Amino acid sequence: MAAAFLAPAVVTILLIRIVPFIGAVISTLHVRDGIGLLAEERFAGFQNYIDLLSDPLFQATLGRTLLFNVIINPLQIALALVIAVLLTRRVPACGLWRMAVFIPCTIPLVGSSIAWGVALRADGPINGILQALGLPTQPFLSSPTQALASIMLVASWVGIGYWMIFLIAGINEIPDELYEAASLDGAGGWRSFWSVTLPMLKRPLLFVLVADTVANFVLFVPMQMLTGGGPQNSTTMLMFDAYRRTYTYSQPNQGATATVILTVVMLVIVFVQFRLLKEDAR
Questions:
Q1: Does residue 144 form part of some domain?
Q2: Structural domain boundaries enclosing 41
Q3: Band of residue 15 on the pLDDT scale cut at 50, 70, 90
Q4: Tell me, what's the pLDDT at 281?
Q5: How far apart (Å, rounded) are the C-alpha atoms in residues 259 and 21?
Q6: Is the pLDDT confidence value at 223 over 90?
Q7: Residue 57 Cα to chain centre, angstroms
Q8: Phi and psi for 121 in degrees, rounded to 5?
Q9: Are 242 and 255 in contact (CB under 8 A)?
Q10: Domain presence at residue 79
Q11: How many domains does the chain have?
Q12: Are 126 and 119 a contacting pair, CB within 8 Å?
């Protein structure tokens, strides 16, 4: 009986996840003699991996992707945690504030990217506010030094409210008796956070950290819509690089190779996160 209930889910996972990934791995072991998707393939072993990993542009993309995640993951989780803690206190119109923070999550990422693209234009409202304050306008999405930070802003606009919901649920599960005991011991708000809230949130935080890591590794829409990986490849991440190699440069084998490398790097980082945090999260 259990097998009958599990069968649709197992078949769906096989068809949507496992089979395409196996096909991608097989594709990485071939090269095309010619240009285009219809060119004849031949077996080449690990040549695609050697070519990509020895390419300075791909090395820079890999490093940029890791840097992006090292910065944005702690930033999003820290802000989501701060907001979750504040919105589980007795503040006026708490439900309204929660809804306001969560609303960006209900907007498709395409819509959010379009809105932020308009806001960050040279003649957009954000630069208008800067001018009104007597500050110089900023290039944001057209600057190699500011474009990546602008992408982080767009991603965090959506992500923070989403992760906040999970953390609020975790905080609401903490027994009030623990806070009462901490209060009787003379613990203030800050001490209660470090001694009660944070230790009891380790399971939700582990889930949020892993899910946020995966989401940011495969982030694609803001780069594709707002910068096209530029300027000067400053916003080209592994996911966008795989897409561009496959559909823009007509190199599906190298695109599949970039996807497999992305998956391996992501799984290694998630594995390390589980190893470091799982023991404490029990």
A1: yes
A2: 18-281
A3: confident
A4: 47
A5: 9
A6: yes
A7: 22
A8: -65, 160
A9: yes
A10: yes
A11: 1
A12: yes
SS3 31: strand
Rounded distance, CA 44 to CA 93, Å?
63
pLDDT band at 13 (very low <50, low <70, confident <90, very high): confident
Using N-to-C axis directions, what is the helix angle for 56-86 and 202-217, rounded to 10°? 140
Would you mind telling me the total number of residues written for the chain in this entry?
A: 282
In this prediction, residue 225 carries a pLDDT of 92
- Report the distance separating Cα 87 and Cα 171, nearest Å: 10
162: Cβ contacts below 8 Å, ≥ 6 apart: 80, 102, 105
List C-alpha distances in Å: 215 to 10, 128, 154, 269: 23, 32, 13, 13
| Cα–Cα distance, 28 to 247 (Å, whole number) | 16
Q: CB count, 10 Å around CB of 217?
A: 22
Phi-psi region of 59 (alpha: psi -120 to 50; beta: other; left: phi over 0): alpha
Contact 168, 87 (CB under 8 A): yes
Domain CATH code at residue 45: 1.10.3720.10
As given in the structure block, the two tokens for residue 245 are 């190699």
- Strands 30-33 and 40-43, how do they pair? antiparallel
In a 10 Å sphere around its CB, with 0-12 CB exposed, 13-18 middle and 19+ buried, how is residue 259 labelled?
buried
Tell me the pLDDT of the chain averaged across its residues. Answer: 87
